[in-house]
Design goal:
Rossmann fold; 5 domains; 6-stranded parallel sheet; globular; binds adenosine-5'-diphosphate; binds zinc ion
Length: 732
């Protein structure tokens, strides 16, 4: 690109112009002039005027032209930060194109930490001067560390040399270390590929070798690492990370619920000698700034992060791993709507590096990709060592219902008791937060609904509140019915985790019981609870899906699923697939150690359902094959493609008018069908009335182009908002 050569321009010439992409939902980049003596290249982060304000943007390429010369403003400042790599800019454009978002809105994912665009504040580092005459072992280690790693700040040096701060201080005071002020941040330690290699089983080793070879080769290959829970997938992909380190490349690991997985960091440290860098919403501002900057400076070897880590300013990215790739949490639902699992594959392709999708229950998309040879499949068929998969038993609730007013069948309670007797742990799983999903008045039948959504208020008894799970609206649990005024007539209908907790504590008042769901106690408290469970400091755990994901609880031997039918009633495309994934994940928490055979019991009103039958018989592939056949017949993903168009408005009439106008202008297309419009299943959220179109297309159809040309003449006005969801996961 021509811009690469612009370094200095003589002042007499006209200023060269460039296009600058601004991280706002604008249609495209704007042209700006580069003042004399300012050097920019594509990817440079710059500060530019925009209307009355100043804003950071990124030089995207040559000027687009078309703006009259007198209207072009000059760039104010080129920031002192390495330019964004071409592959990151391509990624932004690719994602924008694919999810049909303005490129600036996607760029915003990259530009979230403007504090990192300036160099960090200076820092004092030390380097070796004359060695002291009295050289102790500790002092020697300080000199060795400096020789090995170069100048370091005092705390880092003390840590690297494994000496106390006073050793460094004394050496400095004696003139044996010289201090310099350097612009800098505390660097992340480099993990050591050879720190503690694990003895892998033959099957593990064969896969680890193939993954490592793929990393060394550095070309774009997607791998599906498909192994039962506890098979050692993490240990296996650690070897691929080691290969990336040895190749001088960077590795990115995406984990769902990263903020909760302190355990993972411990395992990483045991294998590589230090923690990886982290990226998630729970990071403090200073840590975010440092991490972003260190990545921009290409000094981070391995980072574990949430989906937004894909948008960090990587250089030399040599491996991307998506752990628990089937997890629905990789789909980002607000703002730019994208699936981080799919975008991870795109990111790897642009970086020309391998990507590993790891899971015990692949998404159907990945399973089909592997089956059709687009992904390399690697199968780990057994748990590590002598540990075996849990046995799964179905309980038919129609035949043997729980006692009146209870939710757990006696066999379930007996199993919990038996686990406690054996000094093991029992987990009761119910994917429903709060105490009860519905509250009504026994006197008049009034049901408590959210004022702003078409949804019932969920009672959270521990907090003494009713809460809407769609908008978060809360009110205190009322003493008197809002409708008829009667006191003490409110009845909770159905169970949530809190109610199950109450029931099980009634049976085992002496046991240590922990209840865990995403709305309880904030992230730090949840992380601590998970750690306590792992350390054996609980007998009974009651939890929602946050307890199901990837955790290793050595003492857990019994898993009871309170309502195995819960997800099956959703009726959406992935109801069966998701329920299978979730329940086998949950059951897979049991018996991860050889010394404890795991057991899972599933309460169901339809134990003959194919999903539950597949779980009980362990016939995963049979279930997948039937599910694939059904999807294939119906041309549903991954054999066809879907997109959703959601129109919402605070004024229902405005929304309806807009939807009718859209419906009247659906372009005809042989390979794309537009279904709807219909009111969304939840027809009102946050006081916005919602309508949906569902688009169904063949795999080859130009879905995005079709939507773009359909929507082109329309502009959402007034209270109307229009959003597009490509490959939707949420049909509400
Ligand atoms: P997965 O990710 O497939 O669920 P993990 O990698 O978490 O499995 O492994 C399950 C348990 O078995 C972990 O505690 C892990 O440390 C242990 N493990 C797996 N493979 C080995 C091995 N080759 N040597 C020692 N321990 C192993
Ligand atoms: Zn609400």
């Amino acid at each position: 690109m021509r811009l690469e050569f612009i370094v200095h321009m003589p002042e007499s010439r006209t200023m060269p112009n460039v296009s600058v992409l601004i991280p706002l939902a604008l249609p495209g980049p704007y042209d700006y002039a580069v003042p004399p003596h300012m050097a920019v290249v594509p990817g440079s982060i710059v500060r530019v005027p925009l209307g009355q304000r100043e804003i950071f943007g990124v030089v995207w390429g040559d000027a687009e032209g078309g703006t009259p010369a007198h209207k072009i403003k000059a760039i104010l400042e080129a920031c002192d930060v390495p330019p964004l790599a071409e592959e990151l800019r391509q990624f932004v454009d690719w994602v924008a194109n694919y999810v049909m978002a303005p490129p600036g809105a996607v760029l915003r994912q990259v530009m979230r930490v403007p504090e990192a665009f300036a160099p960090p504040k200076p820092m004092t580092v030390f380097e070796a001067a004359e060695a002291p005459t009295r050289m102790t072992a500790a002092r020697q280690r300080v000199f060795d560390a400096l020789a090995e790693r170069g100048a370091m700040a005092a705390p880092e040096l003390a840590r690297a040399a494994a000496v106390s701060a006073s050793v460094v201080k004394t050496l400095a005071a004696g003139g044996h270390l010289t201090a310099h002020n350097v612009p800098g941040d505390k660097h992340f330690p480099y993990p050591d590929a050879a720190y503690h290699r694990v003895d892998l089983s033959a099957q593990q080793k064969a896969i680890a070798n193939r993954l490592a070879a793929s990393v060394t080769q550095q070309d774009f290959t997607p791998h599906l690492l498909d192994g039962v829970t506890g098979a050692g997938k993490t240990e296996v992909y650690f070897e691929a990370i080691a290969a990336a380190m040895e190749t001088g490349k960077r590795a990115l690991i995406l984990l769902p619920e990263i903020a909760l997985t302190g355990q993972f960091l411990g395992r990483f440290e045991a294998r590589f000698g230090c923690s990886p860098a982290l990226w998630h919403s729970g990071l403090g501002a200073a840590e975010r700034r440092r991490t972003w900057r260190e990545i921009a400076e290409n000094r981070v070897s391995v980072l574990v992060g949430a989906r937004s880590a894909l948008f960090l300013p990587w250089r030399d990215l040599g491996l991307v791993i998506v752990d628990e790739e089937h997890d629905g949490g990789f789909k980002q639902e607000d703002g730019v709507v994208y699936n981080a699992r799919d975008m991870a594959v795109v990111r790897a392709r642009l970086a020309a590096c391998p990507v590993i999708l790891s899971t015990a229950t692949p998404s159907l998309e990945s399973y089909v990709n592997a089956r059709e040879g687009r992904y390399q499949a690697h199968r780990l068929t057994a748990r590590h060592g002598a540990a075996r998969l849990p046995e799964i038993e179905l309980v038919d609730m129609r035949v043997a219902p729980p006692p009146q007013g209870a939710w757990l069948v006696p066999q379930m309670v007996a199993q919990v008791g038996a686990a406690i007797e054996r000094d093991e742990q029992a987990l009761l799983f119910l994917n429903r937060r709060g105490y009860a999903p519905l509250t009504l008045c026994r006197a008049c039948g009034h049901r408590y609904a959210c004022p702003d959504c078409d949804a019932w208020m969920v009672e959270h008894r521990f907090r003494k509140q009713l809460q809407c799970h769609h908008c978060g609206h809360m009110e205190p649990v009322p003493q008197h019915c809002h409708s008829c005024g009667e006191a003490d007539k409110l009845t909770a209908c159905g169970p949530g985790v809190e109610r199950i907790t109450e029931e099980i504590i009634g049976h085992f008042p002496q046991a240590r019981t922990i209840v865990l769901s995403s709305d309880m106690g904030g992230m730090a408290a949840q992380r601590e609870a998970i750690q306590r469970i792992g350390a054996g400091e609980a007998d009974i755990i009651v939890g929602t899906q946050i307890i199901a994901k990837g955790h290793d609880f050595p003492k857990l031997s019994f898993v009871g699923v309170v309502d195995a039918d819960l997800g099956l009633g959703n009726g959406d495309l992935r109801a069966a697939e998701r329920t299978y994934q979730l329940l086998s994940q949950v059951a897979g928490r049991a018996g991860r150690r050889a010394e404890r055979q795991g057991f899972a019991m599933l309460q169901s009103h339809s134990p003959e359902h194919p999903v539950l039958q597949a779980l009980a018989s362990g016939d995963r592939d049979g279930f997948f094959e039937r599910e694939i056949a059904a999807r294939q017949m119906a041309d549903m993903p991954p054999f066809g493609r879907l997109a959703a168009l959601i129109v919402s408005a605070t004024n229902p009439q405005e929304g309806l008018t807009f939807v009718r106008q859209l419906a009247a202008k659906i372009p005809p297309h042989k390979e794309i069908r537009v279904l709807g419009p219909a009111p969304a299943p939840i027809a009102r959220i946050r006081n916005r009335y919602r309508y949906r179109f569902l688009l169904k297309a063949t795999r080859e159809a130009p879905l995005q182009g079709f939507i773009a040309s359909w929507l082109k003449p329309f502009k959402a006005r007034g209270s109307v908002r229009l959003s597009v969801d490509i490959d939707p996961y949420n049909f509400l």
